Amino acid sequence: MPVIHIEMWPGRTYAQKQELAKAITDAFVKIANTTPEATIVIFSDVPKENWAQAGVLSSET
Amino acid sequence: MPVIHIEMWPGRTYAQKQELAKAITDAFVKIANTTPEATIVIFSDVPKENWAQAGVLSSET
Amino acid sequence: MPVIHIEMWPGRTYAQKQELAKAITDAFVKIANTTPEATIVIFSDVPKENWAQAGVLSSET
Amino acid sequence: MPVIHIEMWPGRTYAQKQELAKAITDAFVKIANTTPEATIVIFSDVPKENWAQAGVLSSET
Amino acid sequence: MPVIHIEMWPGRTYAQKQELAKAITDAFVKIANTTPEATIVIFSDVPKENWAQAGVLSSET
Amino acid sequence: MPVIHIEMWPGRTYAQKQELAKAITDAFVKIANTTPEATIVIFSDVPKENWAQAGVLSSET
Q1: Across the interface, do C7 and E37 touch by the CB < 8 Å criterion?
Q2: Contact in structure between A37 and F6 (CB atoms under 8 Å)
Q3: pTM
Q4: Quick check: E3 and B3 in contact, CB under 8 A?
Q5: SS (HEC) of C3-16
Q6: Matching CATH number, C3-60, of 3.40.630.30, 3.30.429.10, 3.20.20.70, 3.90.950.20
């Protein structure tokens, strides 16, 4: 059941995404009584020039 | 009024997106009393390596 | 695979949501080569006071 | 940096949300080289009547 | 064209939402060459117990 | 605290994104009692062929 969306800057490797998907799914199964099959994780790589904090694009910092 | 977001793997053709946008808009107009002009559909192509189910990236399956 | 998010004003009945979920899923199965089981539809009821167009809350119009 | 959105059915307790937020944040810090402070987790409780799979509202199953 | 989603804690008044919708729409019209009519703003009030930073629910801080 | 997502067609320049991020953050600080540091803005460039209104892809209009 849970659908998990992750927005982060590019730079995470394929292996890191594998590990994150595994760790997050395990957390939901263990803590929230879901099944692995029902747990969907979707990554979104957001370029730093599309991300701002304090009014400044992260590509500037 | 309705805003519809669609996340799916790449591979749908331009013609398929045209058909989907038309079919979904028609469904909202017919079932939910909206106007076509007020119905917005946004597609997001999510690479398989950014999608996981059961803790495994879809690019691995 | 597809995850579909629908944002709309409250007021759609339970029966209308049933019909919408069915019609949208059918469209994806027919047009986009997905299976019904892999098609997830999530509705979000957005109060008119949380929706604005042209800079005016929809509750004002 | 990462912003994580979680959509799930209601029913998770306050304590479960605490554990999930902690576990997910820990996973990002350990695997993805982020800081805890930069990791935001947002839960969204989606009623079963607003969630459909295979064209059927989850409140029907 | 732009669709703007805003997630924030509850507590913003109706008047504040009116002002925010107006100010954001004006910014898009002035800076991004859009029309007011094409600019949609959607607010989402996220309870503090559904928001976490640094692994801690905001309702705890 | 606020997280703001902006979906729009490509074509906005880097300078326009800088201005938008600044203007939106300023609006939240002034109107909604947030701090600049707590205000995150995320842009998403949606190709016209992934955007439909009235059932027609925007790339067709």
Answers
A1: no
A2: no
A3: 0.98
A4: yes
A5: EEEEEECECECHHH
A6: 3.30.429.10
Neighbours of chain A (3+ CB pairs under 8 A): B, C, D, F
Residues of F in contact with B37 (CB under 8 A): 53-54
Q: Which residues of C touch A40 (CB under 8 A)?
A: 3, 40
Question: How much is the mean pLDDT over chain D?
Answer: 97
Q: What is the pLDDT of residues E28-55, one digit of tens each?
A: 999 998 999 999 999 999 999 999 999 9
Contact C9, C51 (CB under 8 A): yes
**What are the tens digits of pLDDT across the range B42-61?**
999 999 999 999 999 999 99
User: Residue ranges of the domains in chain E?
Assistant: 3-47
Quick check: ipTM above 0.90? yes
From start to end of C1-50, where are the E strands?
3-8, 40-45
Beta carbons within 8 Å of E15's beta carbon, 6+ residues apart: none
Q: Please state, rounded to an integer, the average pLDDT across all residues of chain A.
A: 97
